[in-house]
Amino acid sequence: MQNTQQNVRPVALVTGGGRGIGRAICTQLAAQGFDICINYAGNAAAAEETAALCTAFGAAAFTVKADVAKAEEVEQLIGATVAQFGHIDVLVNNAGITRDGLMMRMSEQDYDQVLDTNLKGAFLCCKAVCRPMMRQKFGRIINLSSVVGVRGNAGQANYAASKAGLIGLTKSLAKELAGKNITVNAVAPGFIETDMTHAMPEAARQSTLASIPMGHTGSAEDVARAVAFFAAKENSYITGQVLCIDGGMAV
After folding, report:
1. Within-domain flag for 250
2. Which domain does 94 fall in, by range?
3. pLDDT digits (tens, 9 = 90+) for 171-217
């Protein structure tokens, strides 16, 4: 276990855990013995469905509504998790949004909203868990970046900037916390089957598939297994890394 008491289960907080990749991460960690705090921004029903899936694996799971772009709500989220479980061992910064459009037509509001949720939100959550993790002398932080943050993508300047920023945040924080038994790593998914990718126009979908060396999409479970790898107590000598789950897109 990741706590000094053998009968205490490890705890993971997953932001944006209600649907898609976030849900897969929650259930994967629950299956591996974690209790789960599921953060969501708006869809309470989906978050409760995720909680039910986690409890089916024997996990204790509860949901907390919070906008990760707002510092006061992040503090309440961390506080609620600690109050419920007594500690936080793993933070997964998964919450993210898109507001796609070509640069010449992108509004300042669309740029700011994406950066606030995807990058500032991760910063606020990381900052809030640093102190409790340092006190317990253990922690795992995993940031969900994207292959777009590695290679860029036309029409997604705001999203690519936020995801590239997460890589810089990951590497910097990894250096700050390395001596405290806290690892910080990033997972960069490629073209993953989610509600968002299902809504893509067929022409755009086929164009993206053509850029994948393996020739097919990935699953949310592929991403979740990578997150679980970084979350494991045993993987204590891996930090500041970016693992692309993309079928070779970033090669």
Report:
1. no
2. 11-245
3. 999 999 999 999 999 999 999 998 767 777 788 788 889 999 999 99
Strands (E), the chain: 11-14, 35-40, 61-65, 90-93, 139-144, 182-189, 242-245
**Number of other CB atoms surrounding residue 5 within 10 Å:** 8
For the chain, the domain total comes to 1
Assessment of whether the complete model's pTM goes beyond 0.85: yes
The number of C-alpha atoms within 13 Å of 222 and in the hemisphere containing its C-beta is 16
Model pLDDT for residues 101-120, shown as the tens digit of each residue: 999 999 999 999 999 999 99
Catalytic positions are 159
The alpha carbon of 182 is separated from its chain's Cα centroid by a whole number of angstroms, namely 17
In a domain, 80, yes or no: yes
- What distance, in Å, lies between the first and last C-alpha atoms of the chain? 36
Whichever domain contains 98, its CATH number is 3.40.50.720
Determine, yes or no, domain membership for 187. yes
- CB-CB neighbours of 67 under 10 Å: 18
